[in-house]
Amino acid sequence: MKPRVLVYRASEQDRPPGIAAAEELAEVAFAPDADSLSEKIGEAEVLFFYRADRASLEGAFGGAGNLKWIQSASAGVDGLLFPALVDSDVIVTNARGVFEDSIAEWTIGAMLAFATGIVTSSADQRRSYWNDDRHTERLAGSRLLVVGPGPIGRAIARRARDLGVDVEAVGTHEREDPDFGHVQGPEGFHEALDRADHVVNTLPSTSSTRRLFDAAAFSAMKPTARFYNVGRGVTVDEAALVEALSNGRIGGAALDVFEVEPLPESSALWQMENVIVSPHICGDFEGWEEADVAVFARNLRRFVSGEPLVNIVDKSKGHGAG
Question: 261 an active-site residue?
Answer without folding.
Answer: yes
